[in-house]
Amino acid sequence: MATTTIPGAPASHDLPGDAKEPRTRTQRAPRTTVMAVPALIWYAVFMIGPIGAIFVISVLSWPGMLARVGFAGLGNYRAVLSDPLFWSAVENSAIQLAVAVPVMIVGAFMLGYHISTRPRGHQVLRVIVFTPALISASAKAMIFYGLFAPRGMINHLLSAVGLDGLTHTWLADTSTAFACIIVIDIWAGIGYTATLYAARLSAVPESVYEAAELDGAGHWRRMWGIAFPMVKDYVGVTVMLQFLWTLFTSAQNVLLLTQGGPGNASTNLSFLVYQKAFLQSDLGYSQAAGVLLFVFGLIGMLAIRRVFRQSY
Amino acid sequence: MIATASAPAPSPAPPARRGRRRTGGAGRTAAQVCAWLYALMLLLPLYYLLVSSFKTNAQIFSSPLSPPTSLSFEKFASAVSDARLDLAILNSLIVTVSSLIVVLVLALPASYALARADGRAAAVIERAFSLGFLIPTFAALVPTFLLAAQLDLFHTRTFLILFMPATSLPLAVVLLTQFMRTVPLEVEEAARMDGAGSLTILIRVYLPMVVPGIATVGILSFLTYWNEYLYSLVLIGPDRAQRTIQVAVPTLRSPLETDFGILAAGTVVTLLPVYVAYAFLQRRMEGAMIGSAVKI
């Protein structure tokens, strides 16, 4: 970097003649990097610092906000790893990811491709499909609180079509509570992701499809045989996004709708981290679980990267 | 990240330019049916929410989908007075607008600096910000909570206003840097010849030329800040004078018997500003949301 330049200094102080090169550099690189410092400090204090602190807190014994803090070494990790609740939370998170992400991505890709072919009414469809991206977590949870209520719309519709046997107290039933959380992920996730795919696919030249059409390729083959390979690495990016969102942010849906219950039936990893810290005041345990959650996220991300880059 | 210097401005996907509609077929018809079924599944809950906000529990339970018999705003009035939504809306507005100002004040000089510097330090800083995309905000909930307590800003809106801009800084800086790079160097050089300093150049020369970028960042940040729930809950807590609308509305539920009409009305109130903004800024909002995901 041309660190010798003085901001705003006229370049005419340079030697005349062969000074052309340093002169342009003087003008092109005024020392403005310092203007990035406030943002950097902000970012360090409120983002990087807290992330680093997770690792520190995870080796501390911190049994409550006002309690004395001690050193626990790997004690918290031992407590977490030998806790059956942790493993059932891992299982729930794994189920959630294994169901929600593939359904979301495949559904969104088919929908996004369909919209990109501009079917009848595609403009209206586009607007409707985008709507869930605008709804906040708490509003979404309240909408589904009404839908899943014992006398809410879903049970009413089931009874109306003679399926009384299928009605449940959805959010309070061990067998359905966590499924409800997954349904909400999928409900909102398909629409937003489909919007992304539709935008990306509309950049694929029409001629690409026309050639395939002459070869007699139908909707299905055009979609998976031509459109999909062309945006495969972008699909990889969205899989990564949805993976992270599902893994980390579903604590809010659980908190708002089931509080992890009944029993611990709907406790997943991110809710466990929340619950241990704020409902049971065991910060050390919570952050040890938080570190493990972080590690799972990292491993998952690298794995997804590998799968979607494989063919390149 | 220097390699992105020549990247074009992050405009939303290029406009579709299909000459004719593709031929139909059974597959396409099936896709159309599925697409509209999903659309119905999206609309039905929203319709249910809207009509419920004009009904009593008895009406909601007996005929959930029938249109309301009267359009009285009684449930909305009850929601406002039960959970002090008036204060909550005001708090949400204060938090959203203040955070927006903070993020722009921080990100604009930073992205100008990164766009124009060609040193290694700048490259490292830009890389650090772009890696920030991959940090899930939720991960740092507990340490952030402790930081708020440490700064004596626990249970205040102030901390949220300081904290939330940090979460959207990566996106704001990376996006704005790319916009700033599209401003021709000659324009800046001419201003420098006239003796203008960096700050003047940023405000007079760059700001007017990166308005679309500012709009994109503004829209995305508005959505993030207005919709934020978990951090608001943990950092501000239940204090009615401080809490935001996202935290206030779920308190309309009752463990004994929730009045679903009031709850629905409260939820509609949280959605209104976002949908009103969407009605006016449809294209821009979609473009912003799409662009932000593409950049990652």
What is the fold's blueprint, element by element?
The complex is a heterodimer of chains A (312) and B (296).
Chain A: H1 20-28, H2 37-57, E1 60-61, E2 70-71, H3 75-81, H4 84-116, H5 122-130, H6 137-148, H7 153-160, H8 177-201, H9 206-214, H10 219-230, H11 232-249, H12 251-257, H13 269-279, H14 283-309
Antiparallel strand pairs in A: 1-2
Helix pairs in contact in A: 3-14, 4-8, 4-11, 4-13, 5-8, 6-12, 8-11, 11-14, 12-13, 13-14
Chain B: H1 26-52, H2 57-62, H3 74-83, H4 85-116, H5 120-131, H6 141-150, H7 157-181, H8 185-193, H9 198-209, H10 211-227, H11 230-236, H12 245-248, H13 260-294
Helix pairs in contact in B: 3-13, 4-7, 4-10, 5-7, 7-10, 8-9, 10-13
In short:
The complex is a heterodimer of chains A (312) and B (296). By secondary structure, chain A is mainly α. Chain A has helices at 20-28, 37-57, 75-81, 84-116, 122-130, 137-148, 153-160, 177-201, 206-214, 219-230, 232-249, 251-257, 269-279, 283-309; strands at 60-61, 70-71.
Number of E strands of chain A = 2
The side-by-side strand order for the widest beta sheet of chain A comes to 1-2
What is the count of DSSP helices of chain A, taking H or I runs of 4+ residues? Answer: 14
Q: What share of the residues of chain A does DSSP label as strand, in percent?
A: under 5%
User: CATH architecture of the largest domain in chain A, please?
Assistant: Orthogonal Bundle
Domains of chain A, number: 2
Oligomer: heterodimer
State the end-to-end distance of chain A.
35 Å
Query: What portion of residues of chain B belong to β-strands?
Result: under 5%
What CATH calls the topology of the largest domain in chain A is MetI-like fold
What is the class of the domain at 86-257 and 271-294 in chain B in the CATH system?
Answer: Mainly Alpha
Give the distance, in angstroms, between the N- and C-terminal Cα atoms of chain B. Answer: 12 Å
CATH superfamily of the largest domain in chain A: MetI-like
Radius of gyration of CA atoms of chain A, rounded to a whole number:
26 Å
